[in-house]
Amino acid sequence: MVKSKQVLVEKKKKPKETKHAEVEVFIMGKSYKVPAGLTIMKALEYAGYRFIRGCGCRAGFCGACSTVYRIEDEQKLGFDLACQKVVEDKMYLVQLPFVPATKAEYDINKIQPDETILLTMYPEIARCVSCNTCTKSCPQDIETMKYIQMAIRGDIAMCAEISFDCIQCGLCAMRCPADIKHYHVSQLARRLRGKYLDPKSKNLSKRLKEIDNRKYDDEINKLMKMPKREITELYTKRKIEAEETADLGGD
Amino acid sequence: MIDGYPDYMMESIKLVEKKREKNMKNPVKPMSMDAREKMLSEYHPDYMKSTKREVKIGPNKGELLYNGIVDLLESKPVITSKDVDISKIDYDVDLLIIGGGGAGTVAALFAYESGIPKDNILIVTKLRHGDANSMMAQGGIQAADRPEDSPALHYLDIYGGGHFTNKPELARALALDAPKIINWHQELGVMYDRQEDGEFQELSGGGTCRNRMHSCKDYSGMEIMRNIRDRARNLEIPVLEFCPIVEFLMDDKGQVAGGIAFNLETYEYYVIRAKATILATGGSGRLHLSNYPTTNHYGATGDGLIMAYHVGANLLDLDTIQIHPTGDAFPEPIVGILSTEKIRGLGAIPVNANGDPFVFPLEPRDVEAASFIHECKSGRGIVTPTGMPGVWLDSPMIEIIHGEGTIATKLAGEARKFRRFGIDMAKHPILVYPTLHYQNGGVEINEKTETKVPGLFAAGEVTGGVHGKNRLMGNSLLDYNVFGRRAGIYAAKYIKKAKIGKLTLSHLDKYIKILEKANIKPKRTAPILLPEYRGELAISRALDIF
Description:
By secondary structure, chain A is of the alpha+beta class. Chain A contains twelve helices and five strands. Chain A has three domains: about 20-95, Ubiquitin-like (UB roll); about 110-195, Alpha-helical ferredoxin (Fumarate Reductase Iron-sulfur Protein, Chain B, domain 2), CATH 1.10.1060.10; about 205-235, no CATH class. Helix content of chain A is about 40%, strand content about 10%. Chain A has a five-stranded mixed beta sheet, covered by helices on one side. In chain A, strand 1 (about 20-25) and strand 2 form a beta hairpin. Chain B is α/β, with parallel strands linked by helices. Chain B folds into two domains: about 5-30 and about 325-435, Succinate dehydrogenase/fumarate reductase flavoprotein, catalytic domain (Flavocytochrome C3, Chain A, domain 1, Alpha-Beta Complex), CATH 3.90.700; about 90-140 and about 160-190 and about 215-320 and about 440-505, FAD/NAD(P)-binding domain (3-Layer(bba) Sandwich), CATH 3.50.50. Helix content of chain B is about 35%, strand content about 15%. Chain B has helices at about 5-25, 35-45, 65-75, 100-115, 135, 150-160, 170-190, 220-235, 305-310, 340-345, 365-375, 395-400, 405-410, 410-420, 475-495, 505-515, 535-540; strands spanning about 50-55, 65, 75, 90-100, 120-125, 140, 200-205, 215, 240, 245-250, 255-260, 270-280, 315, 320-330, 350, 380-385, 390-395, 430-440, 440-445, 455-460, 465, 505, 525. The longest helix of chain B is centred in the N-terminal third of the chain and has 21 residues, at about 170-190. Chain B is globular. At the A-B interface, helix 1, helix 2, helix 8, helix 9 and helix 10 of A face helix 5, helix 6, helix 7, helix 8 and helix 14 of B.
């Protein structure tokens, strides 16, 4: 067997280092040996894959890298994010970089947060058979089925609350036997809650009026023209709220 | 499987626990301006000579910029005028928006509101719509809306935090537009964390003199981006995904007139003509400047900087980078990923291997990061089994201050990340070390988001001048909203009078001549589009025959 340059160089440099433990993974059925401890994403790259799809923020926020896996001889399928899940030996991997799931179209300003709105926009939620497969496939451990039940009931606020950490990867929608598009349903619930149900800030309204009346223009313009030494002093001497509350041991 | 901390790290954690009560009672005071300067000059990569070199060509000639940025400027453009046929136009629009992250999407919405029909707008993006650093921001967004706060104080924080190097007109826009942005978000349906009376829960951030951090749990960026994108989808604003712009089109009058898109999946190019173009390509963490790991999105490769330089735009403040103090240092799979500043905002204090605090927890990011590096270089950090240094961030303090269960509700994402590796951050501290986080500078804009090149607007992380040489927490989400909005509005105004001449790509041929004249022999091409993370073994055996 021909050894690659890299391996030879590495061996020369670090003769004493023992070889890292390896695991065998199957990328769409094909076997690759990769170092243990890598995330699925890094393991695919180590094996020589260069991502276009199936890779986004690399930190668990964007939902681009949903991955389905099964460990050899295990009964259950696993669902996770390639950037967060560490590879295990004999893992069979396939990525789901796109989910076909139609979103309802609406103008949030022209709909009302009434009990039937979610059912009207997404009537298929009524077909939920409470199998809980969506919950089991969620890489964020969200109680997906529960928020769909809330949606059916018309409890927009709870649907929004439970679904809040959704990264919209779409694994739930791909697994649902009733063809529900969970992550689109909860997106609408959250927007309705944020816009209509949560109480609003009075401080903000007051501040907006002040800004419209140009209350701060002169003060800021003065700061903009201030010589550097003067503004440095002003900056250094300003009172820091966090420091004072820290003295009190916090709230 | 990684399951919690190894024994020797648990020994250090015992010291942290022992001193926790005392540490909470005796907080470290903020540094004086002189002490800050000294810390930065000795321990921040911005102040080290080996990290930078002189630019030999273009508008920034003679300036010292980070090596990785100069590498881009000294690369060959990916195409020349001979490679594409610009006589056939694939998309003819009023407004081309490059980048489908926060700034680009906000710009599209406000261009639409300003009268540009949706079908005359085109967003092109390298990955998916919404795949961006905007989605990843956790901590929150600043806006001075409490009675004890004011936009003037916000301005002072922005300007001082940026070491008084910001463009004042941009800092003013950022501070004064902020409350409007929060209000717009309310109308869209963003679920901000609120008190029972509807007022926002507002925390402090590094370098801010008032508590003005608005948050949506620790998914602030995601919640804002989800709302903005949902609005754009409902309006059916056209988006071309997996099609980065690789160079601008210009016309014979010296205006930017659209761009050449490249389909990453079919390798085709598309010619896009536009009356105005908004550059919103985001940052450059994936260049790994100064060899730091990064918190950034896969697509953050600084494409916009180099494309703008090719058409003659100038760059600001790229002699600085923002290293975020609290990147994860343990366990190995999450090294470089961010642990939000909100953890410190909620009261967690950084402590060293002996359990002793050594810095005010909420210094501006550069100062805080330099202090962490100083502590580790002085031998008071913890070194992980893979050789990564770090200091503790004592997260259990949050539960003592705000009550049990606070971490589960307010830092759900963070707790989830560590739980995967058997670490309960409500019980044990987390190990952190600075990580490359933000491109402070970029393409210079004015308060109308105009660049120096007619027809080219820019917004968001790709721009320079807003934050000067250091950005404060919560001002980047604010930045893309404030300047994305302005870009949409001012580009729409510009479009009404714009006239495009004969299209050309001659600027690329000229750039190659400039490189030759400066005796620069390019080693590669730019923009680089995506980072290269394939295993060395795989790359060494790759053949380019198919």
